[in-house]
Amino acid sequence: MIDYSKNPASYDFRLQGFSLQPLLKSVENNIPVYGYTDVNIGISYLELVFSTGKLTDNNKAMSAILARLFPYLQVSEGKTLFELLEFYGAKLSFEASSTHSSIKLYALSTDFQVIVNEVTKSLKKPFWTNDSFLHCKHTLSKDVKTRQLEKKTISDKTFNKHFYKGTRLGDPLSLENIKDCTSEVIKEKIECLFTQLDFVLTVNLEADKLDLSLFSANNERSEIPLNFTEKSVKVFPKLNKEQSLIQSITPLCSVLSSDYPLFYFYNQLLGGSFQSVLSQEIREKQGLTYGIHSSLLSVNNNTYLKINSTTPYQKGEVVFDKIEEITTDFEKYLNETYVNQIKKISSATFLKNMENIFSQLALQKNILLSELNLNFYSNLLTGIKKVEIDDLLRINKEVQANSTMKLIID
Predict the structure, then answer these.
(1) How far apart are the C-alpha atoms of 148 and 163, rounded to whole Å?
(2) Could you tell me the strand order of the sheet in which 231-235 lies?
(3) Which residue, among 34, 37, 50, 33, has the nearest Cα to 8 in the 3D structure?
(4) What is the pLDDT of residues 222-244, one digit of tens each?
(5) Beta bridge partners of residue 311, listed in sequence order
(6) Taking phi first (over 0 means left), then psi (-120 to 50 degrees means alpha), and beta for anything else, what does residue 406 get?
(7) Of all helices (H) and strands (E), which one includes residue 324?
(8) CB burial of residue 386 (10 Å; 0-12, 13-18, 19+)
(9) What span, in angstroms and rounded, lies between the C-alpha atoms of 269 and 272?
(10) What is the band of 16 on the pLDDT scale with cuts at 50, 70, 90?
(11) Contact status, residue 190 vs residue 66, Cβ threshold 8 Å
(12) Are strands 405-409 and 243-254 parallel, antiparallel or unpaired?
């Protein structure tokens, strides 16, 4: 019989409450190791989190090529990591965000140590054939060329150019970046990881059996230098005359702010679901968009409200005007019944997404990366339940008073 008490998160569905149990913690070679144990699953998991990301890459293509090249690393007996992982039914990946990167490994617990040993060896002396390297560069180039013909890619590039202005994140990945990337550069990237290990996350692994002697501790992640300004940008990619894309972004508050639960819920109610005000008013009632959605973007622990929409061709200005009309007369769209409905949807969606140990571990990773209180997420749900209409109107005024960047891709 399954012992639910072993689950690292506890729930009270009647009260829609949530709390994370503390991670087990130890220190190996001055590197923090955090983990959960769950006797109900036979899977083990290891994630090495490094304090180096795309901001530190000299070439924009480095992380993208390394992610593709990972399966081609050679292991013992001339095999590749792909062949080893396929034999054991395991999964290995390299992922890089703006400020940190990670190596993730999933495998059956009975096979895990063998795979970890082989992966460590392949990283210590990285080798791949020239054909494998050229193949990764070719497929990445092909994908870049394909994406250059998509309006969504142009929209994202425009957003990055203006939001991350002055950083490497503001520059698009180019074919020249890919061409200039060499095997030696990728090997230097791997060597850099060994000196930049921030912390380790585990499931069903004994920390004292992990060999971290090859790694050096470092938990100083780069901050993204932002110079946010209010502006309107219109781009004409001339790809088709069927649809336009719009994006807007508005600074809100720090993740550490006591008002964060209010802004979180404001996003859910404004455009965070199909039942949201923007979706109901702009999509359902007026048919001005094929789909409209708002979300929260966090950069350096500062939060931004981001609104994305696909609209009929050259209707971007009309949709922006409608969004402004809605937020100006926001009280018109609020009543106790509707607000309580969105509260239930928000809480239920959050709890549904936390059904397994790995999604809960993702929350723990956010807590560690942002140095949040362990009760951050339980406090978030508690805060949502306490939101009143007056709170939402106050928050709405703050959002309206802030600068907004607007992008239209025709």
Answers:
(1) 20
(2) 231-235, 405-409, 243-254, 302-312, 291-299
(3) 37
(4) 899 998 889 999 998 877 778 89
(5) 244
(6) beta
(7) helix 316-328
(8) exposed
(9) 6
(10) low
(11) yes
(12) antiparallel
